[in-house]
Amino acid sequence: MQERLDEARDWWQNGLALCTGDSEYDRLGYLIFEMAIGEGSAQLATLKTLLIDNPPTTKNLESILEDLDLLAECPELPAAATARTLIQSHLTL
């Protein structure tokens, strides 16, 4: 299992290099990619600030939530589950 997780992180790391856009969706995606490679605490703080100060569109949050649903299934990525809960809570406001 750890070998597969390491392989997945390599793929997410490669994907991170492709996140070069500056759109709202791109910035959200970049945060999610960073969470996937294990850098979760700083991204959670950024996400919290973003949701309060400059809330993304519902469409972008719902799209990112699909990625987080997948990541949140991995117990090695607790930040993804927390981020999913934050976004779900924000969508129900």
Brief synopsis:
The protein is mainly α and about 90 residues long. Helix content is about 75%, strand content about 0%.
Report what the structure shows.
There is one protein chain. The chain has 93 residues and is mainly α. Helices cover 77% and strands 0% of the residues. The chain is built from five helices and no strands. The longest helix has 17 residues. It starts with a helix and ends with a helix. The model has no long low-confidence stretch (mean pLDDT 85).
Strand content: under 5%
Q: What is the average of the pLDDT values?
A: 85
What is the chain-wise order of helices and strands?
HHHHH
For the report, how would you describe the main beta sheet? none
**CA distance, first residue to last residue:** 38 Å
**What's the tally of helices?**
5
Query: Which spans have pLDDT < 50 for at least 5 consecutive residues?
Result: none
Question: What percent of residues adopt helix (DSSP H or I)?
Answer: over 70%
How many extended strands? Answer: 0
**Strand pairing plus helix content: what structural class?**
mainly alpha
| Bulk shape | globular
Rg (C-alpha, Å): 13 Å
